[in-house]
Structures are given as C-alpha cells and as structure tokens.
Amino acid sequence: MTGTRYTDPSGLDPSTTSTAADQVRLGMAAMQVAPLAAITAESTAVLPVAGVVRSTNTLLGQDGIVGLKTGSTQWLTRSVTIRWGSVSSTSMSSTKPASRRTRGGWVPAGTSAARRTAHASRTTAKGQRTREELVAAARRVFERDGYFGARVADITAEAGVAHGSFYTYFASRQDVFVAVLREVGEQFRVAVAVPPSEPRRGVLAALDRANRRYLEAYRANSVFWALAEQVATMDEEIHRIRLRGRIEHVERVAKTIRRWQEHGLADRDIDPRTTAGALVSMLSNFAYWWLAGGDSYDPETAAATLTAIWARAVGLTERSEVPPAG
Amino acid sequence: VPIASVAKLMTAYVILQDHPLSANGSGPDITVEPSEAAEYPSQAADGDSLVAIAAGETITERQALEALLLPSADNMAWILARWDAGSQAAFAARMNAAATAWP
Question: Is A1 on the interface with B (CB under 8 A)?
Fold first, then answer.
C-alpha cells in the first residue's frame, strides 16, 4: 500500500489520503480478520453509555453488499465494500453534499419528530397489518430470489406498499429477514412442544409425534429454512438467532431425556445434553437433505425410522408410560 | 485523495492485530478517560460523528470497534488509538507501518 498515508485514526484529517487500489487491498486483508468482517456486517450494536447504535451504512444489505465501510466528505462519498466475497472501492459524487453532515457516510437516524411519526404508525392496527404484509412479501421474494438477490424495492412492490414506508418498519433487508426467520422459528418451536392439552400417551408415541410435527414444519418451511442456513454462514446475527433456536431445541430434548432417566425409562450412562445435540443434528440434517436438498424417502418409513433410532439411542423401551409431570 | 472515515477500517485492522479477538469474543475492557469525555461537547459543536461516552465508562474492545465501524464514531477512533499506542501520533505511525507492510 504505497499510495496511502495515515495522519489520524478517524480519517477526519484531510491529509489522510489513499488510492482506490490500496483500499481494495486493505478491504481484502480486513475480510480475513473474522471479527472485523463480522462487525462491519452488523446493522446495530448496543453500547454501555450510548445505547443502541445503528449502522447507517446505506449500502449495507443492498445489491449483495454485506459489509465493510463507507466514508464521506463534503464532496465525496467513498466506500470499501464486501460483496459476497469480493471487495470493491468506489467513489461517487454526492448530489447533496450539504445534507451529508456526518463524515462516516452514515445518514442521521432522523429528527426526533420523524422517529415519533414512524413509531406511531408502527403501533396502529393498520401499521401492524402493513408490517405483516411486508414480512409475508419479503418471505416470497427471499424464497424466489435468494437473500442476496432480494432488493427492498422488490419486497415493497410485492407487498404493494410505497418504497419509503419499508423503513418505517425495518432498518434493512437483514432486519426483515430476521422478522421472517423469527416467524418460521416460532413454527418449529410450537411443533416440537407438546401442547398441554395433549392426552397422555406412551413415551414412544409422544416422541414419534414430536418428530413428525418437526418434519411437517420443515416441509412447510423448507425453502426459507434452507436459505436461512446458507445466509447464517455469512451473517453473524442470523447465525446467532439460528444458534439460539437450536440450543432451545437441544435443551428441550435434553430435559426429556433426563426425565426418562430419572424414571428408569432410558439409559442412565448417556450424557443427556450431548445425546440431545447428536439426535437433534440427525433429525435436522436428515430433514434438510430429504425436504430441501433433493434426497428422497418414503414419508411414513422416514418418520418411523427416525423415532426408532432416537428410542434405541437413549435405550427407551416400548412398555413405558409417561409418568405424571412434576 | 482524502479518504475520510474509510480510514477507520485500518484503525480497526491495527487494533485487531495488536489485540486479536475471536469471532464472537468481546475482548479486554477499555476505560474512557475524563479528558476524553470532557472533549465531547466541543467535538459535537464541530459536527464530528460521535457516540455518547462518560468518564470512567468501561467498554469492551468489541463494543469500541462497533462504535468505530457502525455509527463511525470519531471519538472512539481517538480512544482506541490512545488505548493501543498511547498517543494519536504513535497510532498513526502504526497505521502507516501496517500499510507499508503489504507489497
């Protein structure tokens, strides 16, 4: 990087200068630093005194841009961006230099009056409906075009709402993706939880039901779920949400195994948490390849076999009755 | 050409070189000095891009990098530079050394 001279760490000093080629080189090196790539892909963070800070990197989440940094002066907006594994540096003439007061290239979060208006419309019944329509439309667009191919303009067109109103409800494409992910995650959560009204059955029957409901939920959401898995490898926040969902599922299964052990229904020599993790992995990976990945199985045989493998893995026996809870 | 806040990418790069973080790690705590908090009003008057800070506040390395890179806080760039190298000039020297270390 011979064309670069740094005179201060903020870049505020105009004597800090560089070339586009050098910045691309730096961007490529920066991308190899995992926490740096992760942080520049975040849209918000929480700080001790400042509270929630938002990346107003207006490029983030658009046209496949997943990270790095923009900066602006009175005359120029510059950016070094990662786009699905490639790095580019651009400079654009700013059309309204006077309005870009922040040198970070970040648009201010808006006046407090504008934020209040946005908050008010988010909380009305009509606002709630608009939000739901946007989430449903976003899901269709993501399933059709993929995460990086989906543009906010496509989502608003699909929902039939004005482009600008998207930002009343969501900060970015990532934000609306997270909203869809939470909805789908909730369906899985409901699927594997035995409803309290469920009449008591044998342990095996209850296990079989939970696994079948999981597979049904997977089938209904396979396109989006497989996409989320792919996006999670690039986006740390989405990875974290998926990890939380998995841990919740594993903990639920571990709790069940512990209960079986206490009642002498399951092998006491196995570690419940580890066994639960392995079994959940088998179930979800089987479901992925079967229902999203193109592998093919008979539905009845698949469900029955998965349940039988779970039962054998924990040493569960057919005779068992579910003991009264508590 | 002047590169404005894109320089913060190198700031973050040097910080992470000197104080590596794991992908999800939060890193060591950094304490905001009273003099740094005291400069806030005049920096704000200059129209600098800032995050709110308080004297004696402790912030993790990861949070400091988030403040640097998300809202592009100039004051966090100066705090990180002081924490890492002792002075702004010493840190700028480290940035230039990192830049010239590449072919």
Answer: yes
